[in-house]
Specification:
- By secondary structure, this protein is α/β, with parallel strands linked by helices.
- It has 2 domains: 28-156, Serine Threonine Protein Phosphatase 5, Tetratricopeptide repeat; 168-499, Metallo-dependent phosphatases (Purple Acid Phosphatase, chain A, domain 2, 4-Layer Sandwich).
- It contains 20 helices and 14 strands.
- It has a 6-stranded mixed β-sheet. A 5-stranded mixed β-sheet has the order 4-3-2-13-14, covered by helices on one side. Strands 7-9-8 form a 3-stranded mixed β-sheet.
- Strand 2, helix 13 (252-262) and strand 3 (271-273) form a beta-alpha-beta unit.
- It is globular and about 80 Å long.
- Residues 1-30 are annotated as: Disordered.
- The active site is at 309 (proton donor/acceptor).
Amino acid sequence: MSSAAEEANHKPETPVAAGQENTSEENPLQAKADELGVRGNEFFKEQNYEQAIALYTEAIETCPNERFYANRSFAHFRTESYGYALSDADKAISMKNSYTKAYYRRAAALMALGKFKKALADLEFVAKRCPSAKDAQDKYTECKKMVNKIAFEKAISVQHQEKSVEKMCRDLEFATIEDDYTGPKLENGKVTLEFMENLLEWYKKQNKLHKNFAYRILCDMETLLKTQPSLVEITVPDEQKFTVCGDIHGQFYDLLHIFEINGLPSPTNPYLFNGDFVDRGSFSVECIFTLFGFKLLYPNHFFLARGNHESFNMNQLYGFTGEVVSKYSQNMADMFTLVYNWLPLCHLINKKVLVMHGGLFSKDNVSLDDLRTIDRNCQPPEEGLMCELLWSDPHPLPGRVPSKRGVGIQFGPDVTEAFLKYNNLDYIIRSHEVKAEGYEVDHNGKCITVFSAPNYCDQMKNLGAFITLKGNDLTPKFTTYADSPHPSIRPMAYAYSLMS
């Protein structure tokens, strides 16, 4: 594989491969499909992945070809629909089992799902077929290292789990707070409003909170979260505003913008942040300590739900672990893993609106009591209620279908309606998906998605949004906003090398 071929692995393939130059002239359907493929590639280059997918799909329906499946796999990968990306790569390989690029695409989807052992087999195939391609050899080597690393960490995971954050804090020898440290300081070990206001300004100037205070916040968060149920009930007074935010994904300067336009959290301005606080964006440390700080300051007026990215595997792949290690230490990264295990899984507002990060379930008649009894102190499983709360997505057609992500399910309007009726609820709010306007209303107004990271990963050009409602009027109101300027640190700067 030449250097040009290496580069081709990072973009869609052109419709007519070497040796096929006259195929289109001989086959009008192939000519039409190739033209659709070219148009799909143009949309892909413009990062309009949904339109690219639509054109690749039309090309496949016109004249199926492994190249269109591989290109559509790549577009699905870019929209984080890893299950669809995997399926298309499988289809391309079934059509041509020597098609190297399809193995490359399948490996990428498998790695995104944390299935490194399966990805390694595909990368080994690519590396053997392309012995002179540095990119292929490097990815095979890195993936092999990750497989060995995961095996080692599993072997010692029992020892890690036996250590609570509190014990880890006691084991630490805290450094003396240096005389020249002028940043925010806890007062008698506690978060205050002054501390939070100073912290926001401190972070805005790209400074780091002293590790002494960072560790204390983590210890106090574990203590607090252990007292929380898996389903938290929230009572909003009649005339009080309540705000629900979706994914933040390490975009700290956009988090600041939310507070600028909607006000800082307070007992009279309560918030719920609905998971995926970290990863992808490269200011995840700043985001998480801001959110944890407000939770400690206002434990009964500021709420945090677990997302699928508050987990060990996702943090390893998408940047949070690397960022914590860079700014603090591996020990602190381990502490975050343990604290995340105690985050609540869903919230019930005034007994009528259920809020979760992902979505609904693969079986009927799931009750709120079923959600209350979930034992959440673990890494998210690959199936079951906890998995689906964190991973599932709505889709427009009735019934249930396999997830586009490869984890959880997709559920239709009839599933939503039945769940709401069974539990006497009005509607659900969830996050988990980028939306062009920052939000989307589906399933006859009964399933609402809110996503609060505008211009996600500095490339999606979407707006961010948050929802406000009142205790005596649970009708959701949407506020949208564009992205805010941030320091020139690219998204995924701390991500695992195979994913960045």
